[in-house]
Amino acid sequence: MRKQVTAKKTFNTKESILRAKATRVNQPKWRLVSEGQEYVWTSKLDRVNIIRKGVPYASIDIISKRIDVPVKDVLHIFGLPQTTYNKKRRENSLMNGRDSEVVLLLTELLDFGIEVFNNEEEKFQRWMKKINFSLGDNTPESLLDSVTGIQEVRNCLNRIEYGNLA
Q1: Which long-range contacts (CB under 8 A, 24 or more apart) does 38-46 make?
Q2: Which among 27, 33, 58 is positioned nearest to 45, based on CA atoms?
Q3: In sequence order, what E strands does the chain have?
Q4: Residue range 72-125, pLDDT digits in tens
Q5: Is the separation of the CB atoms in 31 and 39 below 8 Å?
């Protein structure tokens, strides 16, 4: 048997940059449109920049519609009284960092959940309201009031996507 000798390939910087750009293009892209302003992010650092600037209170309405839950229930997630919400919304105020982060995380979670359920929003919304064994006999919807809860729901969706117990 003859051994084939292969020449050692040298590192090509241009090819590496092109591969990195192609990978970045294929990354998930999230969008939130609220009060005529479009917020787009593809990475956690992009998300941090949006969080620092804040998103409008009207984003709560968008989240409410997407998870098919009344606004007053979504306000509970943010610990926000209805009157304060109405005033801030009328003034076109921006949310603080923590609340903006929750809105963006919920947007990512909802997009991912709909994708996992093959773009069947009704099926995903039903799943959000059902008690789930892997979430400690809680409904996914009931865990959205904390960043950790949102992450647990995302982990559960991830397990569903890969066919594991969820």
Answers
A1: 39/104, 41/104
A2: 27
A3: 30-34, 37-41
A4: 999 998 999 999 999 999 999 999 999 999 999 999 999 999 999 999 999 999
A5: yes
